[in-house]
Amino acid sequence: MQVTPLQLAQATALIANKGVWNRPHLAKTVDGVAPVDEHPMPNILLKD
């Protein structure tokens, strides 16, 4: 079975989000207003 790196990343994200899949998208502005992330990801300390 062959998968692309993007498919592997999507599968990993699906597992990390407890089965919730979000369609990836890019947006610089929406009607001239910079988008605001309603659910910002918390900073995770990987190494002390």
UniProtKB/TrEMBL annotation:
Which stretches make up the Penicillin-binding protein transpeptidase domain? 1-35
* SUPFAM superfamilies named among the record's database cross-references: beta-lactamase/transpeptidase-like (SSF56601)
Q: Can you provide one Gene Ontology molecular function annotated for this UniProt record?
A: penicillin binding
**Which Pfam families does the UniProt record give?**
Transpeptidase
What is the protein name given in its UniProt record? Penicillin binding protein transpeptidase domain-containing protein
| UniProt source species | Pseudomonas moorei
